[in-house]
Design a protein that fits this description.
Radius of gyration: 31 Å
Largest sheet: 8 strands, parallel, barrel
Distance between the termini: 23 Å
Strand order of the largest sheet: 13-14-15-16-17-20-22-23
Strand content: 15-25%
Oligomer: single chain
Helix content: 10-25%
Shape: elongated
Number of domains: 3
């Protein structure tokens, strides 16, 4: 048993816990505690009274506010409230207006919500007053000179902004209140709220906190090892949120027992209170027709998928954390188009076969998951997997023989195929919970953010609504290592700009970025733009 900072529940917005829990107590990915009330920044910024007996006169410069129902001379008091500092998702907002009578009386004073805050104390008169709701939100029955009188005006304050409260007196003698110009007891307003629980973990689909993005990488310049992971994290100055692994076609999902991928998943590499997550590019076979559920399926491949599912379930029982699985293979457009350059190709690798292979992989996992007594509803926190698809770069290329060209990997027609490859059930529903692509820029080429914009803007304009609603990710991104290393100037400019763009929420759909550091020519420390990469990795939106 070790002390964990978080104990997860199914919710996107969660509170920070600090109790000591055993690994068996960790369900999916969250923790929650009741939040104490907090105070907003609030003030009465303007006030004035208006009088029916002097309908064109202003009364906003007095040290007092007049209420009363003298003959032919009604009075209303207008108070403008300014409120800030209430976070999105806050609940239980309360507002208490406090005024100080200058005189004593046994009069009823009612508080109403104003119809508008488009008035000023220098300009409001009886004739141009903005009016108020007839509903009484709070009342007092008597006034004592020098003793505070309080009105619960919570009904008038809905969050941050400017609000108006209006006081009137149904009957009785004139009462004076101190105004904001009074040196003794000017009116005040106190606003409290219950803050949303601070988000410390993802929900059942591993979606990070609102406004945040997972920061991850494939830190493998000399092979994915503990040393490389720790070196990469030291370079960027923060732990990776997600570690990306690739599996070769025809290999098992997890590799050998106790290998590095498994160590990361089980959080045995420098155990943290915030465990790293694992994203795996899984390719049961290079020929999709061998595991698409048809008669031509390869027995060994099918057996391996069953075994991979069972091992995933067994590891999930230890880690109590879901794993991203990009099933079938990453960058599937290359296989559809039969690109060369070492990419596996097969005439059977069509969009239809890819869809069928996806359905069969997920069905096999679901059968094994059901047999283990776990729920097969993918959104359930006890379902072990988050399914993802990772496609090719969406930028135009010029060389179909290698799938590479002046603007990086991919063919222009990949865009339509990429959308068609998003795995769906036979009824048309999406199987995956995450969608991604690989934006690259060649060394010496256009800015990395321009390559990102290309794909992002295309998807915003062309993706179907259900795909657009998914969280998006860069399954890998960076520079084309076979075209040489980027210059220090390019890397510095690209990642400084990317950090700025992320902080400005330029790509709100993108919720995870996995930097591809699989070759030394892309390693920020080796190339020399590590400082800029740290700026990116620690930008305000990153979630680790």
């Amino acid at each position: 048993m070790r002390c964990l900072q978080v104990h997860y529940i199914l919710s996107t917005a969660v509170a920070l816990g600090s109790g000591c829990v055993s690994p068996d107590d960790r369900d999916d990915d969250h923790t929650s505690e009741t939040s104490a009330a907090a105070s907003a920044t609030a003030a009465v910024t303007e006030d004035a009274y208006v009088a029916s007996g002097f309908p064109a006169d202003t009364h906003g410069i007095q040290t007092f506010l007049v209420l009363g129902t003298g003959p032919n001379n009604l009075h209303h008091v207008y108070l403008k409230l300014s409120v800030s500092g209430i976070p999105s998702g806050a609940t239980g907002i309360t507002a208490v207006l406090q005024v100080s009578p200058q005189t004593s009386a046994s009069n009823v004073i009612n508080a109403h919500c104003g119809n508008s805050s488009a008035w000023s104390e220098a300009g409001i008169t009886w004739n141009n007053q903005v009016g108020f709701s007839t509903a009484v939100v709070s009342s007092i029955n008597a006034e004592t000179a020098g003793s505070p009188a309080r009105f619960d005006v919570s009904a008038c304050v809905t969050g941050n902004g400017t609000f108006t409260v209006v006081l009137d007196e149904p009957s009785g003698a004139v009462v004076k209140l101190d105004s904001t110009r009074s040196a003794s007891h000017p009116p005040t307003v106190a606003v409290t709220f219950t803050p949303p629980p601070p988000c410390t973990g993802p929900d059942a689909m591993l979606i990070p906190c609102p406004g945040k993005r997972w920061e991850g990488a494939n830190p493998a310049s000399s092979g994915t090892t503990v040393a490389n992971l720790q070196s990469f994290e030291a370079m960027q100055g923060v732990q990776l949120g997600v570690v990306h692994f690739f599996r070769a076609p025809g290999s098992t999902l997890w590799g050998t027992a106790g290998a590095f991928q498994e160590q990361v998943y089980l959080d045995t590499v420098a155990p943290r209170t915030n465990p790293r997550h694992v994203y795996v590019g899984y390719r049961p076979n290079a020929d999709w027709s061998l595991f698409d559920g048809a008669d031509s399926d390869d027995v060994a491949t099918i057996d391996r998928i069953h075994a991979d599912a069972r091992r995933t379930i067994a590891l999930f029982a230890q880690a109590h954390r879901k794993v991203w699985i990009n099933a079938v293979n990453h960058e599937p457009e290359r296989y559809v188009f039969g690109c060369g350059g070492g990419n596996a190709t097969n005439a059977h690798n069509t969009v239809a076969t890819y869809q069928a292979a996806w359905r069969n992989v997920v069905a096999i996992f679901d059968r094994e998951i059901a047999a283990a007594g776990l729920p097969t509803r993918h959104a359930d926190p006890q379902y072990p997997v988050v399914w993802a698809i990772n496609t090719q770069n969406l930028a135009k290329a010029t060389n179909p023989a290698t799938c590479k060209g002046e603007h990086g990997n991919g063919l222009s027609t990949f865009r339509a195929v990429m959308l068609a490859l998003a795995p769906r059930t036979t009824s048309g529903s999406l199987i995956v919970q995450w969608f991604g692509w690989n934006p690259y820029s060649p060394a010496g080429g256009r800015p990395l953010t321009t390559a990102i914009d290309d794909g992002y803007n295309f998807l915003i304009a062309n993706a179907p609504a259900d795909l657009k609603a998914l969280p998006w990710h860069f399954g890998e991104f960076g520079y084309l290592g076979d075209q040489g290393a980027p210059s220090v100037a390019q890397g510095t400019a690209d990642f400084t700009s990317l950090a700025s763009r992320l902080d400005a929420n330029s790509f709100p759909n993108v919720r995870m970025l996995l930097y591809f550091d699989a070759v030394g020519l892309q390693d920020p420390a080796t190339v020399g733009f590590g400082a800029a990469f740290r700026t990116y990795a620690t930008s305000s939106t990153m979630f680790h």
